[in-house]
Amino acid sequence: MEKQILWAIQGALPLCDRPFAAMGRRAGCSESQCVSIIGDLKAQGFIRRYGAIVNYAVLGRAATLVTASVSQGKLAEVITAVNALAGVSHHYLRKHSFNLWFTLQGGSPQAIEKNLHQLSRQTGQRFYSLPAERFFKLAVRFCPEGPSKKDFEAREFSPSESPASVVSLTEEEKKALRFLQEDFPITETPFDSLCQKTGIADVKQLAEGLIARQVIRRIAAALDYRKLGYDVNVLTCFAVPAEAIEPVAYALSSRPAVSHCYQRKPFAGWPYNLFAMIHAGAMDDVERFVSNLAEFCGICEYVLLPTERELKKAPVRYE
Fold it and tell me: Would you say domain 2-49+163-223 falls under CATH 1.10.10.2890?
């Protein structure tokens, strides 16, 4: 039963008065069993957090992927400085001469550039920004059975939704969003609990509105994939001609092993413009898949950047 629940909680939480009863019915268990299993999974560390996944672009915010080539002697200093930035949600040490990689959000592209300039002055380190030009897939969902060869088999694939228009939130919506980002109550009536906690009359109704306007992508669990056996996490970057971007991106995105796929703006000395995040049980599986796909698509240039260490993983909180 745990495996059914592990799969279910990665999907969108049912927006009803008793969501875990609905989830339990789908998984073949009772509401109390569902609540108990999720509690146990949290206690065992399978669940990193349970809460709203926010679409930053709809709130008018900008984001980019940043990299730097940092010497061993400066690594600790630069890591500390990067992690202190409020807009950094993900930060990794990767096996490459460009060894630091992090995502940075800000109120605008100009604000991001200002933050990077200040960071460079503080650390004496040069940082390179790779803003997204198009995203094809953002679907982090891991098989509870663990990694397998099937993760690299093509499946039916629907491209990620088109960017929505920027929206303005009422003060009540902002308050609800703050709490929905926190750890979601794992109780029989979680929305009632949130109403009592926030003083808002109907949090569920506000959540429905925020999801309808794409402010919230979904309310779901983020798992520690390593506990499921996904020990290899590889950022893979391809240099793809403009006319081939879409077919190659679709070929990548159709594989369950690929959780993210973006077209990004390269910089001088870095020709790679298509980025994919690949999760697997062994590096050999990733290397084989990428090599075969590159040969099939006629791609000559690509690079694999396996994660050596996770330095920060915490969602940006929206106030």
Answer: yes
Domain-wise residue ranges, the chain: 2-49+163-223, 58-158+226-311
Can you tell me whether residue 203 is helix, strand or coil? Answer: helix
**What is the number of other CB atoms lying within 10 angstroms of the CB of residue 184?**
22
CB atoms inside a 10 Å sphere around CB 236: 24
Query: Over the stretch 245-289, which tens digit does the pLDDT of each residue have?
Result: 999 999 999 999 999 999 999 999 999 999 999 999 999 999 999
Return the C-alpha torsion angle 251, 257, 260, 264, nearest 10: -50
CA distance 176 to 190: 13
pLDDT of residue 161: 63
Characterize the bridge pairing of strands 100-106 and 132-138: unpaired
3-state secondary structure 91-156: EEEECCCCCEEEEEEECCHHHHHHHHHHHHHHHCCCCEEECEEEEEEECCCCCCCCCCHHHHCCCC
| First vs last C-alpha separation in the chain | 37
| Adjacent-strand bridge partners of 312 | 91
The pTM of the full predicted model, rounded to 2 decimals, is 0.93
The length of the chain is 319
58-158+226-311 classified as CATH 3.30.565.10: no
Contact indicator for 34, 165 with CB cutoff of 8 Å: no
